[in-house]
Every structure is written in structure tokens, then in C-alpha cells.
Amino acid sequence: MGTIKSIDPDVVVVTEVEANHNSPAFGSRFMEALYFFNAYLDATQAYFDHDCNCRMAVESVYCGESIRNIVACEGEERVVRNVPLRAWRLFFKRFGMVEVEQARLVIHNHNIINAGCRDLCTVERDGDKSLVLGWKGTRLHSVSAWKFTT
């Protein structure tokens, strides 16, 4: 955080998987991964053709490797350690950062979502200043913006 602060950015934008894949308890990590990746894979099926190279890459590389790492690795081998927005809020607060308004810059993009999937994909505010993107009620990604107060 010292390095980031020394750069003196106006704003730091954070996008994160909105799930707790950092639990030390295997059962908790497994259930979080199950719900998260079920929704993620369901969304890829709705947006991409079955034989689309993008879909295959997302499913095998992103989802496959992440699932394997979250549920099959422990200790230093486990590198996928996503945490939800509430954890980022606590982390950034310790370093004197505050959340800044950015949601309205992104919310208009929700209007261009594929008409066939619009009712399934959600863009909602989390608090007054951050966004959470979801699929069929499952939170998938958060977007937040932060600045240093001093």
C-alpha cells in the first residue's frame, strides 16, 4: 500500500470476485466456489455459443484453474484468495482510504446488456458508492473506487 500511496493516484479502482474464496475452512471455500462458479458458467452459456473459443477459454482456463486452486490446494499452493467487497472496505480503511462515487459512471452500461439476458444479469449498488454485478441473484464481481484521505 505504501508503493501505491507513493504514486499519489487520484483514484484507485478495484474490481474483485464477489465471493469468499479465502476461508481457511475447506467446506466454506468449496460451497462459495460451487455457488459462484455455477452462476459464472451459467452466464457464459447464456452469452456465448457452445463452440465459441472465448467460452472455452473462460471455462477451462479461468474457471477450471480457479476451481482447482480453490478446492484442491492448501497453503502456499493456493493462490486464488478472493474476498468480497466488505473485506476490501475494512482493508482500505486501515490505510486511510475512503470510497468515492463511481457507480453512476458504469450503471448506464447495464442498459446495453443482451436483451435475452437482461432479467438474469443484475447491476446493483452496494452502499452508496460501489457496484456489484450478478447473475440470477448470485453476486459475481464488485467494482469500487478509492482515494487516500491524506
From TrEMBL:
Q: Where is this region: SAW?
A: 72-147
The record's keywords, sorted A to Z, are: Nucleus, Transcription, Transcription regulation
Entry GO CC: nucleus
The primary site where this protein sits is nucleus
UniProt xrefs under PROSITE patterns: GRAS (PS50985)
Q: Which domain of life is it from?
A: Eukaryota
Note one Pfam family from the annotation. Answer: GRAS
Give the location in the cell: Nucleus
Q: Does the keyword Lipid biosynthesis apply?
A: no
Q: Which family does it belong to?
A: Belongs to the GRAS family.
What name goes with this protein?
Answer: DELLA protein
